[in-house]
From TrEMBL:
<dbReference type="Pfam" id="PF01633">
    <property type="entry name" value="Choline_kinase"/>
</dbReference>
<dbReference type="Pfam" id="PF12804">
    <property type="entry name" value="NTP_transf_3"/>
</dbReference>
<dbReference type="InterPro" id="IPR036388">
    <property type="entry name" value="WH-like_DNA-bd_sf"/>
</dbReference>
<dbReference type="InterPro" id="IPR029044">
    <property type="entry name" value="Nucleotide-diphossugar_trans"/>
</dbReference>
<dbReference type="GO" id="GO:0005737">
    <property type="term" value="C:cytoplasm"/>
</dbReference>
<dbReference type="InterPro" id="IPR036390">
    <property type="entry name" value="WH_DNA-bd_sf"/>
</dbReference>
<protein>
    <submittedName>
        <fullName>Winged helix-turn-helix transcriptional regulator</fullName>
    </submittedName>
</protein>
<dbReference type="InterPro" id="IPR025877">
    <property type="entry name" value="MobA-like_NTP_Trfase"/>
</dbReference>
<dbReference type="Pfam" id="PF13412">
    <property type="entry name" value="HTH_24"/>
</dbReference>
<dbReference type="GO" id="GO:0004305">
    <property type="term" value="F:ethanolamine kinase activity"/>
</dbReference>
<dbReference type="GO" id="GO:0006646">
    <property type="term" value="P:phosphatidylethanolamine biosynthetic process"/>
</dbReference>
<dbReference type="InterPro" id="IPR011009">
    <property type="entry name" value="Kinase-like_dom_sf"/>
</dbReference>
<dbReference type="GO" id="GO:0016779">
    <property type="term" value="F:nucleotidyltransferase activity"/>
</dbReference>
<feature type="domain" description="MobA-like NTP transferase">
    <location>
        <begin position="93"/>
        <end position="203"/>
    </location>
</feature>
């Protein structure tokens, strides 16, 4: 079949060609050529005419149609560039922000809608789905973006020729900073957050986001064939059919990105080319997928008129739709968890949560707490261990009843604490409150329950260091030297005689919730596990910023004795050092992902160095293991 097609193509290009020439051109034996010529004559694909000594061959109408079908079939076949359909986690995003906007006195992405810049809104959405590294390609008024420097982990790249180039030139500027698959957005894009989330979640590694036609007059129309991108153009007259309109958001694999840049740099002679058309060029040989979402609320701020429309109509519509989507999502969680109808949920109120999202929900005449884990927490927390430990705490009566816990998603539903008053670092210093918190810790530490795991701070530190490397973060200056001193301290700690008991391991004051006059609960068991009980005491003292006198008072209540043994003081100091080192690395991870914790992390790291010089560490105040 392949040789027959080659002969038809050769004859189509030159009818005055001998069988010997056909043999040479197609690397086929003369005998094979003669056989195929006879076959084509019999099938009516060609006819021949003798002119002098030469035999000329011509394609019949049937032969032309056959050749066209075979070439078309061949052209529809494309290469799958990726060898697996396993979904790849995306942690990088590129935002193109170099375009000139004469209508505005700032880059379009820095336009504010309800006191938030368009680009900041998109960065926050991307952070929520796990994007930790951003590359922003600037050009027009590049310095306007500098206020974003502390907002996220951003690398700025300048397209110095932004006045004379298109978006492909800007994308190529990011080449050295892209190390893996990434999301690509335009800075002036306003779009529903669910659209970006669904794009990131698509199993396709190369995927353009499209929706139904907007009628804006500036649409980039899209045609799909055989399930993949076939044509993109703003000229409607070029299409046999229109399958949607392209939105300024895509997901690209590193392989396809490299092809785009290579082809652009080697072959392109049009500096104004946009990346969509370079991607289209790549799609002629490789499969580029798509995600079509219907009735998405979105807009681009290309002009004053469009921006006015965004503020007056599009954004209010988007807010209503996102609020409705979140409400339906929460109702869906509760419906699946508790086996109720969604309309039985009559109230939803967001509250609290440093890394998770918590909601007070009303079902009938009862109130509950829904916990939805923050993105990326599954790498830092074992939900199966948390489920066991939370259940044990509920059975022990030191946490509320646990109604539902999904150890795959981390979604949790528990009873709401009545008359709840969450402690803070100020109220936790009151002696009557110390009595309550010391009492509940005593109940936990002396309960005899066996938790699902052991909280090993040194293993946690190693684990967090690996996570930090994954997000391209870095520790504070001098970290390795400080860590080596801490590891030497561990040898003393390991020689001490004491039992590991069930511990909470995150005894910040906000995890203690007072109920009425005498009741108190200890919530959020994400870090629970068997440990030295002095870890909980040390953590509570640090997080409440106890003075030495306040810590002594708390210990006398907890131990129910006036004299505090030196060995207890030393273990508390050691645990403070371990915690400060651990949570400084935790802060490095969070900040590498774009969160801002101010001086929290560096202050803890500096306190490690200070406490390592404490004379108490060199005193022999403990019994050695035999």
């Amino acid at each position: 079949m392949e040789h027959l097609i080659k002969l038809l193509e050769a004859i189509n290009k030159n009818n005055n060609v001998s069988q010997k020439k056909l043999s040479d051109l197609n690397d086929i034996s003369i005998g094979k050529v003669n056989y195929l010529i006879q076959e084509m004559l019999e099938k009516g694909l060609i006819y021949n005419e003798k002119k002098g000594r030469n035999m000329n061959y011509f394609l019949t109408p049937k032969g032309i149609e056959y050749l066209q079908q075979q070439i078309g079939s061949y052209q529809d076949k494309k290469v799958n560039i990726h060898y697996t359909d396993v979904k790849k986690e995306i942690t990088q995003a590129v935002i193109l922000a170099g375009g000139l906007r004469k209508d505005f006195n700032c880059p379009a992405g820095m336009l504010k809608v309800e006191d938030k810049e368009l680009i900041k809104r998109n960065i926050e959405i991307l952070q929520e789905i796990g994007i930790t590294k951003f590359v922003i390609v600037t050009g027009y008024m590049k310095d306007a973006f500098r206020e974003l420097e502390d907002f996220a982990n951003i690398t700025f790249v300048e397209n110095k020729r932004y006045k004379w180039t298109g978006s492909m030139a800007s994308l190529a500027c990011a080449f050295e900073h892209i190390t893996d698959d990434f999301l690509l957005l335009e800075d002036d894009l306003l779009i529903e957050e669910r659209a970006i989330k669904e794009l990131a979640a698509s199993p396709l590694r190369d995927c353009v986001l499209i929706t139904n036609e907007s009628g804006s007059g500036d649409e980039a129309f899209v045609e799909i064939r055989n399930g993949f991108l076939y044509k993109v153009s703003k000229d409607i007259h070029q299409f046999n059919r229109i399958d949607g309109e392209m939105i300024g958001a895509s997901k690209l694999s590193l392989d396809v990105f490299h092809m785009m840049v290579r082809d652009y740099e080697q072959h392109n002679r049009n500096p104004y080319m946009n990346y969509e058309y370079m991607l289209l060029d790549i799609s002629r040989n490789f499969n580029i997928g798509y995600l079509k979402l219907f009735n998405i609320v979105w807009a681009e701020a290309d002009s004053q008129e469009q921006f006015y429309d965004i503020k007056q109509k599009i954004f209010p519509m988007l807010k209503r739709k996102e609020a409705e989507f979140r409400e339906n999502q929460i109702k869906g969680y509760l419906s699946a968890a508790l086996g109720i109808e969604p309309d039985e949920v009559t109230g939803i109120q967001a509250f609290g949560g440093m890394t998770n999202k918590n909601y007070k929900v009303t079902i009938g005449d009862k109130e509950y707490v829904l916990r939805v884990p923050g993105n990326g927490t599954e790498k830092m927390i074992s939900r199966s261990e948390e489920k066991v430990n939370s259940s044990l705490a509920s059975e022990l009566g030191i946490d509320t009843e646990l109604l539902y816990f999904n150890d795959e998603t981390g979604i949790k539903v528990s009873e709401l604490i009545p008359n709840a008053e969450t402690l803070n670092s100020k109220t936790a210093k009151r002696e009557d409150y110390m009595t309550l918190t010391a009492g509940i810790l005593n109940k936990l530490h002396h309960s005899g329950i066996k938790m699902a795991n052991t909280f090993n701070v040194f293993e946690k530190i190693e684990e967090y260091e690996l996570l930090l490397k994954e997000v391209n973060g870095s520790t504070y200056s001098g970290y390795e030297e400080v860590k080596s001193q801490v590891m030497k301290l561990k040898q003393q700690f390991d020689a001490m005689v004491f039992d590991f008991v069930p511990c909470h391991n995150d005894t910040v004051p906000e995890n203690f919730v007072k109920s009425g006059e005498e009741g108190i609960y200890l919530i959020d068991w994400e870090y629970g596990g068997m440990n030295d009980p002095m870890w909980d005491i040390a953590a509570h003292s640090l997080e409440c910023n106890f003075s030495s006198e306040e810590e002594e008072l708390f210990l006398t209540i907890y131990l129910d004795q006036e004299l505090i043994p030196g060995e207890i003081k030393k273990r508390i100091l050691m645990n403070k050092i371990y915690q400060d080192l651990l949570w400084s690395v935790w802060t490095n991870i969070k900040e590498a992902k774009g969160d801002d914790f101010g001086n929290y992390g560096i202050d803890r790291f500096n306190r490690v160095k200070e406490n390592l010089t404490n004379p108490l560490l060199t005193e022999k105040t403990y019994e050695l293991k035999k």
